[in-house]
């Protein structure tokens, strides 16, 4: 009982922490205030660590990893985005894109915390190891796609500003175009690879485990559409020499589908992917 | 304070006048030695391409402003071009304020010019080499450098490109990640194009190529850069294929690069971003090329807009710089005022008296009541005796009215040894 209280406390505290973190990154980005510049990176690491603690506690308290409902998955996705960004920030030293990426993590975490339920009774099938593998690869895929989209979005903003000789905040604070494009591309490749693994596992193993499995499941179709889109985008970059603006637009469209798949499909369409 | 300054600068004289007053390091040393012999206890000469300035501490207030101007003009034998009216002078606080403004770059032709601080520093070092600096100017040097450092650290007055060539380089580093992996092609000659390439080289550009209608010109440019290769002018458009940055500055009545060319080249270079800096007047590159994906085309006007904006931003920082200057002036004069003999003696006396009273109070009960008055008297007498020698020495110096090196040294030593802080703040050597 006590553990569940702690988990409930964390469920409230984590989105607040993200809000504070996004606030710090915003002050640093828009106002360039020294205290925010100094504090934001330590705050990022602290938040990411506490988020992992939350996920760990949640797993222990309810005796299953938080992968059984879309809201449980959303907090995982938020954590993956935050961790992915932490890695990028430590690796490149570029701290000014954090506001945009962490904003995404904040959105996912807020939605998760608002609707997440304390479930202890879950279908036994959801305790399968392979399902865990399927979900975590799909999550990493979505994380890659999300990061790729944010960098794509930043690229397009900066691209547009440079082309039209507007030299405002975006121009002064963002890293250079080449770097943004590289980040977006790397994240897309990672996302695509992970999504491929998730789909293969899903298609070949899960039909045997679920009686209700159907190839017409909306989530499955959605994922395939996303996969095809990225496959086309990545090969156009390779084969047709697509660069810059076009590939970024593909990345953003792909993310749009992911977002739809996470929200509309999960909430309003029925299929074997919903287990509640 | 008997600090005076004379200045001839872009505010007071045109370049053909003020260049006559430019002093080389050797000339500066010679002039300083003569100036010190004739007029000053301490002096320094700052000479750059935009200004020549003299700062000196005199022994007496009576100095001949005209005589100094004449000395400087005669020293450079520049009587034909330079007249005394080309100089402006200021005194004491005004002179300090002026020096601080110069060091902070707000008196420069281009506001926020960062080179000036190094030039000022160098000027003080040169003066120090010929022993023209004393305690006052040494302290003034520290304060001046401090003003410069704070200006750079606390304001953005030095930020943002304020020349067309530098604006182009700044843009390049917003487009490309690592310039050392990129190459640039300069088409045509011209000062701005050349400067742009030099700035790019300063940022570590990987490769430089030059194309010119006259091949010999291209060759001489390459040798002046010290690196690079020459490209045939006829293959110029083809040359766009292999480079990332193109600078065109050709005298041509019509466009030398058309959108079709750029289109073709972009395909060949598999859409890798191409940054074209067109500084030709009239323009060399058809502006319609701007619409092509991954082509970043800038002409001299759009670069000029960047420069104007940055200049505006720098101007907006001036109030912050003025505040820094005021703070540093307060600090400098606080130190300067603490050098006065009268207050120093007074504070010294107070310090010793405080010690005496404390000890007497602590121990007075050990004496019989009838002896206590005597204790007061004796201890007072001891303190007075101790005070006598240092006080008279300092007073004698004060009566001479000279703030010589020796006097200042003594005052500083006294204050430090006896821990008499006064108002002054200590600061480490810069």
What low-confidence regions of chain A span 5 or more consecutive residues with pLDDT below 50? Answer: none
**β-strand amount of chain B:** 5-15%
Give a count of the beta strands of chain B, DSSP E runs of length 2 or more. 10
What is the overall number of helices of chain A? 9
The largest β sheet of chain A comes out as:
none
The parts of chain B where pLDDT drops under 50 for at least 5 residues are 423-430
CATH class type of the largest domain in chain B? Alpha Beta
Mean pLDDT of chain A: 83
Content of β-strand of chain A: under 5%
Oligomer: heterodimer
- Report how far the terminal alpha carbons of chain B are from each other: 23 Å
Could you describe the 3D structure shown?
The complex is a heterodimer of chains A (276) and B (430). Chain A has two domains: 1-119; 123-276, no CATH class. Chain A is 79% helix and 0% strand. Chain A contains nine helices and no strands. In chain A, helix 1 (2-31) packs antiparallel against helix 2, helix 2 (34-62) packs antiparallel against helix 3 and helix 3 crosses helix 5. Chain B is an alpha/beta fold. Chain B has three domains: 3-157 and 317-332, 2-Layer Sandwich (Beta Polymerase, domain 2); 164-304, NAD(P)-binding Rossmann-like Domain (Rossmann fold), CATH 3.40.50; 338-417, no CATH class. Chain B is built from 16 helices and ten strands. In chain B, the strands form two sheets. Chain B has a six-stranded parallel β-sheet with strand order 7-6-5-8-9-10. Chain B has a four-stranded antiparallel β-sheet with strand order 2-3-1-4, with helices on both faces. In chain B, strand 6 (207-211), helix 9 and strand 7 (229-231) form a beta-alpha-beta unit. The interface between A and B is medium-sized, with 18 and 21 residues.
């Amino acid at each position: 009982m006590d553990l569940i209280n702690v988990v409930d406390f964390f469920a409230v505290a984590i989105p607040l922490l993200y809000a504070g973190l996004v606030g710090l990154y915003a002050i640093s980005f828009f106002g360039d205030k020294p205290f925010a510049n100094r504090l934001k990176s330590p705050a990022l690491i602290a938040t990411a660590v506490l988020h992992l603690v939350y996920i760990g506690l949640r797993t222990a308290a309810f005796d299953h990893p938080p992968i059984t409902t879309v809201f449980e998955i959303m907090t995982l996705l938020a954590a993956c985005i935050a961790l992915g960004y932490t890695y990028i920030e430590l690796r490149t030293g570029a701290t000014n894109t954090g506001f945009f990426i962490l904003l995404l993590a904040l959105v996912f975490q807020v939605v998760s915390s608002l609707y997440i339920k304390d479930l202890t009774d879950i279908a036994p099938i959801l305790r399968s190891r392979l399902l865990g593998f399927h979900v975590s690869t799909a999550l990493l895929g979505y994380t890659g796609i999300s990061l790729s989209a944010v960098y794509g979005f930043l690229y397009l903003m900066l691209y547009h500003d440079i082309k039209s000789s507007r030299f405002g905040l975006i121009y002064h604070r963002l890293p250079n175009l080449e770097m943004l494009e590289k980040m977006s591309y790397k994240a897309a490749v990672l996302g695509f690879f992970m999504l491929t693994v998730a789909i293969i596992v899903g298609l070949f193993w899960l039909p045997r485990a679920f009686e209700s499995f159907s190839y017409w499941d909306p989530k499955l179709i959605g994922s395939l559409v996303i996969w095809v889109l990225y496959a086309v985008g990545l090969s156009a970059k390779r084969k047709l020499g697509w660069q810059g603006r076009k590939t970024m637009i593909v990345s953003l469209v792909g993310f749009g589908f992911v977002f739809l798949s996470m929200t509309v499909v999960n909430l309003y369409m029925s299929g074997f992917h919903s287990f509640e | 304070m008997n600090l005076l300054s004379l200045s001839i600068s872009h505010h007071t004289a045109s370049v053909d006048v003020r260049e006559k007053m430019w002093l080389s390091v050797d000339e500066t040393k010679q002039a300083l030695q003569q100036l010190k012999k004739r007029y000053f206890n301490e002096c320094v000469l700052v000479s750059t391409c935009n200004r020549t300035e003299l700062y000196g501490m005199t022994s007496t207030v009576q100095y001949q402003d005209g005589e100094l101007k004449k000395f400087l003009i005669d020293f450079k034998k520049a009587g034909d071009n330079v007249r005394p009216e080309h100089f402006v002078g200021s005194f004491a606080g005004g002179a300090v304020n002026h020096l601080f403004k110069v060091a902070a770059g707000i008196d420069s032709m281009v506001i926020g010019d960062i080179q000036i601080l190094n030039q000022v520093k160098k000027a003080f070092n040169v003066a120090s080499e010929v022993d023209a600096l004393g305690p006052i100017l040494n302290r003034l040097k520290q304060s001046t450098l401090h003003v410069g450092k704070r200006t750079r650290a606390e304001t953005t007055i030095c930020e943002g490109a304020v020349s067309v060539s530098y604006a182009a380089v700044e843009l390049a580093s917003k487009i490309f990640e690592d310039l050392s992996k990129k190459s640039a092609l300069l088409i045509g000659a011209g000062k701005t194009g050349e400067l742009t390439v030099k700035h790019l080289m300063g940022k570590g550009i990987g490769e430089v190529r030059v194309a010119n209608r006259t091949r010999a010109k291209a060759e001489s440019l390459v040798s002046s850069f010290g690196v690079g290769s020459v490209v045939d002018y006829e293959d110029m458009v083809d040359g766009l294929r292999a480079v990332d940055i193109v600078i065109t500055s050709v005298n041509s009545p019509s466009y030398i690069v058309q959108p079709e060319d750029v289109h073709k080249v972009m395909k060949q270079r598999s859409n890798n971003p191409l940054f074209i800096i067109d500084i030709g007047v009239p323009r060399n590159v058809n502006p319609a090329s701007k619409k092509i994906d991954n082509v970043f085309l800038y002409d001299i006007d759009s670069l000029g807009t960047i420069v104007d904006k940055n200049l505006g931003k720098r101007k907006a920082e001036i109030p912050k710089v003025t505040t820094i200057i005021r703070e540093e002036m307060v600090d400098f004069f606080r130190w300067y005022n603490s050098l006065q003999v009268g207050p120093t003696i007074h504070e010294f006396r107070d310090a010793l008296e405080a010690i005496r009273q404390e000890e007497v109070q602590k121990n007075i009960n050990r004496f019989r009541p009838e002896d206590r008055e005597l204790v007061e008297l004796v201890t007072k007498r001891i303190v007075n005796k101790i005070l006598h020698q240092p006080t008279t020495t300092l007073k004698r110096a004060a009566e001479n009215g000279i703030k010589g090196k020796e006097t200042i040294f003594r005052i500083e030593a006294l204050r430090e040894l006896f821990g008499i802080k006064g108002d002054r703040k200590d600061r480490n050597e810069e």
